């Protein structure tokens, strides 16, 4: 893929001009005593001796595997695996509906970057808990596959609603943007850059609230002022500093927010071309053209989010999201009501039941769900790469521990993982009249991560 972007940019296309004088960017490359006698300690009569077994090692952690879930529907699929709607058939949460993301180890392990991003996604979604971020419930593995069990978000993708409506009213966009901003702010506070914000990665729950998904392109451990150089994301929503590989930080997420806002209010991303090269050229050098029907506050916020010079971009400073939250476009927003989920969603999904899949593409949901067998399993040494993948959500453990019981011995244990419905999985849909911008192949080809 790298060769695709070894291009020369030139002036050729006619450029829509805006009153903004934004600069054009050129493409460029506790204490311990060492005197303690261990043998003496082991011979002490004060020690309790316990025979280790499955009953008392990591006691309290539910052992889960593919056999504990019944496949109901296919929600999406892609190069690395599938996403299923599943029903839990064992345990305290028997009968609960989840989304199960299945990834083939052999496909992931071929590329060191894919492996790193899969592990990072798993770790991020274990660590990050937020009202507007998808919850990871379980993670486990077999010899050939990785399984991520996520909360089932029956509202489907925000993309579906935007595709159906064409454009959103500003009040509608304001609702979704406010919840997304708080999700990104939480990630940034944890030192995480999201790097793949777009309508396909924003799911809605049964009430219509936002849940950010797909953490496969996130970058961890990014402190204030630090940059990374990985080329990743979806072209139409990529910040210029990613495209030029000049080093990027948290501000790339605010550029993507500006592109998403523009998309919501106009029906397409702000910079698009007939092919990748022209799209990149417009992102780096094109003038921003804003429709006359947008309010002055909406225009101002979009311009400030889509500043190519990072230091001029709203949200790029130490205040991060606070700069954006204080913008006049959100003057009617009570941010405490947002985080408390008190705002009324503009679209409430029309659902018949908790396992309704009507908001997902029938191309997948109408297909018989089969978790196909793996063609080969990894060696023991290769499998060590995924050591520590297993995870059970604290909420599940709390339910398991709700009943009083007698315990003779217990050893401490760790939990480790997470991801959204999407990942490398793509649903198929398009938004007219620019079908060349919205087809599944378009988004599949335009989502990259490289060194």
Automatic annotation (TrEMBL):
Keyword entries, A-Z: ATP-binding, Kinase, Nucleotide-binding, Phosphoprotein, Serine/threonine-protein kinase, Transferase
Name-wise, this protein is: Ribosomal protein S6 kinase
What is the source species?
A: Tetragonisca angustula
Q: Where does ATP bind?
A: 75-83, 101
Extract the coiled-coil ranges from the record: none
Superkingdom as given in the UniProt entry: Eukaryota
The entry sums up its family as follows:
Belongs to the protein kinase superfamily. AGC Ser/Thr protein kinase family. S6 kinase subfamily.
Q: One short Pfam family name for this protein? A: Pkinase
Catalytic residues (positions): 196 (proton acceptor)
Task: Enumerate the GO terms in the molecular function aspect.
Answer: ATP binding; protein serine/threonine kinase activity
Checking InterPro entries in the record gives:
AGC-kinase_C (IPR000961), Kinase-like_dom_sf (IPR011009), Pkinase_C (IPR017892), Prot_kinase_dom (IPR000719), Protein_kinase_ATP_BS (IPR017441), Ribosomal_S6_kinase (IPR016238), Ser/Thr_kinase_AS (IPR008271)
Q: Known catalysed reaction(s)?
A: L-seryl-[protein] + ATP = O-phospho-L-seryl-[protein] + ADP + H(+); L-threonyl-[protein] + ATP = O-phospho-L-threonyl-[protein] + ADP + H(+)
> Which top class of enzyme applies to this chain?
transferase
**Enzyme Commission (EC) number:** 2.7.11.1
Classification from the root reads:
Eukaryota, Metazoa, Ecdysozoa, Arthropoda, Hexapoda
């Amino acid at each position: 893929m790298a060769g695709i972007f070894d291009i020369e940019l030139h002036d050729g296309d006619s450029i829509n001009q805006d009153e903004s004088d934004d600069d054009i960017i050129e493409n460029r490359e506790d204490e311990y005593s060492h005197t303690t006698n261990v043998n003496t300690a082991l011979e002490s009569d004060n020690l309790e001796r316990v025979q280790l077994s499955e009953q008392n090692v990591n006691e309290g952690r539910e052992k889960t595997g593919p056999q504990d879930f019944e496949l109901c529907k296919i929600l999406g699929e892609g190069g690395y695996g599938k996403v299923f709607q599943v029903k839990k058939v064992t345990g305290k949460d028997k009968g609960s509906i989840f989304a199960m993301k299945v990834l083939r180890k052999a496909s992931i392990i071929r590329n060191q970057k894919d492996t790193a991003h899969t592990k990072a996604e798993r770790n991020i979604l274990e660590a990050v808990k937020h009202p507007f971020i998808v919850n990871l419930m379980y993670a486990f593995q077999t010899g050939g596959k990785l399984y991520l069990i996520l909360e089932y978000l029956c509202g489907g993708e925000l993309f579906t609603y935007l595709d159906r409506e064409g454009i959103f009213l500003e009040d509608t966009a304001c609702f979704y943007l406010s919840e997304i901003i708080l999700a990104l702010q939480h990630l940034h506070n944890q030192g995480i850059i999201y790097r793949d914000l777009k309508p396909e990665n924003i799911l809605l729950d049964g009430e219509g609230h936002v849940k950010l998904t797909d953490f496969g392109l996130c970058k961890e451990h990014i402190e204030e002022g630090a940059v990374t150089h990985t080329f990743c994301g979806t072209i139409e929503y990529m910040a210029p500093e990613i495209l030029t590989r000049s080093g990027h930080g948290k501000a790339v997420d605010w550029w993507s927010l500006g592109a998403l806002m523009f998309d919501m209010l106009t029906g397409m991303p702000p910079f698009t071309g007939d092919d990748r090269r022209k799209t990149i050229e417009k992102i780096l050098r094109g003038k921003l053209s804003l429709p006359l029907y947008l309010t002055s506050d909406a225009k101002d916020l979009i311009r400030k989010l889509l500043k190519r010079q990072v230091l001029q971009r709203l949200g790029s400073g130490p205040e991060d999201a606070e700069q954006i939250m204080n913008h006049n476009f959100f003057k009617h927003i009570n941010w405490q009501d947002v985080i408390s989920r008190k705002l009324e969603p503009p679209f409430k999904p029309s659902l018949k039941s908790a396992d309704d899949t009507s908001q997902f593409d029938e191309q997948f949901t109408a297909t018989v769900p089969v978790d196909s067998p793996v063609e080969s399993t990894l060696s023991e040494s290769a499998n060590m790469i995924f050591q520590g993948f297993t995870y059970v959500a604290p909420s599940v453990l709390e339910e398991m521990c709700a009943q009083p019981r007698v315990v003779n011995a217990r050893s401490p244990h760790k939990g480790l993982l997470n991801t959204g419905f999407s990942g490398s999985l793509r649903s198929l849909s398009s938004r007219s009249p620019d079908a060349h911008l919205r087809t599944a192949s378009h988004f599949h080809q335009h989502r990259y991560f490289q060194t």
